[in-house]
Predict the structure.
Amino acid sequence: QVQLAESGGGLVQPGGSLRLSCVASGLTLKYYVVGWFRQAPGKEREGVSCIISTKRRPYYVDSVKGRFTISRDDAKNTVYLQMDNLKPEDTAIYYCATENPELPVGNVCDVYPLSRYDSWGRGTQVTVSS
């Protein structure tokens, strides 16, 4: 059974940092495109970042470019999202997900449409507030 488990969320002040982890069981993450997503209260789930492999350029949405860094440790079957210079508008539940492996992959991954991703974790809460 495929399971993704996010951790690392919490309460942080504006300008602070958090590192989220996405650990997989039941599958080998290095064979999958992995994405991070978030959903704020009353808003639709949105894509944040995705990664194909350590050798390819990851993708970031404009709102997090220069502040968030996605990485993967295939030996630990884990993908990370380092979040620096956090802002109140980053407050959301953060989810990781794996892309359907049957879909074609270009040089750069994409977080949209969300339907490309078919295995999801339960999320971890990130709250940015003073």
Summary: The mean pLDDT is 95. Residues 92 and 124 are 8 Å apart (CA to CA).
